[in-house]
Amino acid sequence: LHVAKTSHSKLVCYDDEQNNYSPDRLAMIGQLRDAITNEELRLHYLPKVDQPDGHVTCVEALVRWQHPDRGLLSPDQFVPLAEQTGLIDDLTRWVLTTALRQLSVWRRVRDDLSVAVNISERSMNHLDLPQMVFDALTETGVPPASLLLEITEAALVADQERAGVVMQHLSGAGVRLSLDDFGEGFTSLSHLAELPLNELKIDRIFVKDMLESPNDTAIVRSVVELGHNLNLEVVAEGVETAEILAALNELGVNGVQGYFFTPPLPATEIMDWIGARTP
Ligand code: C2E
Ligand code: CA
Ligand code: CA
Ligand code: CA
């Protein structure tokens, strides 16, 4: 893997094993462009379970591609391709609009529900992202505070200043912001304190081996303390066992996600799942 700096001082990665000009790759790019108009993309929803009360007030939208020949593709198989080819803005717009339309239907029976949408590094550095978000909110009538945008720490490292401007614009309008995959990047503490964040999300890599790894436990404990000192909610993802859930509760996390509760579910199933948990 080579990492190169372009004139826009953005990092670009070229993968030798996946030849950039292979016919396969070119075909995928063309198909991805059509996938949006052909309605081949799907959203699955992963609940965020509040701690310690176990309520669900937010679900995270996760995109999939129902490919005509290759079956259901996970985002790792095509989101990077969308980022590299400039299709990411269309994808982000589709995800935002679809998730908010769905939320507006759910909110007729559950008006406390909100939705989280992942914003890719590249979209985060586009100054027109806020307008795209505001358009989707206006179209669907969802209040800004019922939308949480999950921004990876890497997106902030790429262009701190521009990402900061985009975040201020969104936050100023009432949209909530989460720093995703926290712990993987190198955001300085002073920068973190300046950002208009509502939530820190601890990546699964620190959570999954917590019980065996004192180092991972120390990292999770530090992030929880840091988040709480900055008045942020702290959410841990990748919870697969009751033991890890208990350990996270001991450390005082505000929310958890993971296969211990459920994998991401299609829209048709997630409300039944939430309903079955509510006493
Ligand atoms: P992420 O935002 O960190 O999302 C969490 C990923 O971990 C999801 O995988 C989720 O299904 C998985 N996960 C959650 N709990 C567990 C668990 O207990 N065990 C295990 N093994 N996995 C768990 P998924 O859906 O494959 O998404 C992968 C990544 O793709 C996401 O990571 C996110 O960075 C990206 N992504 C997904 N949807 C979108 C989207 O609409 N737009 C953008 N830009 N990126 C997206
Ligand atoms: Ca996420
Ligand atoms: Ca991620
Ligand atoms: Ca993650």
Automatic annotation (TrEMBL):
It comes from the Bacteria. It comes from Kineosporia corallincola. This is Bifunctional diguanylate cyclase/phosphodiesterase. Residues 25-278 form the EAL domain.
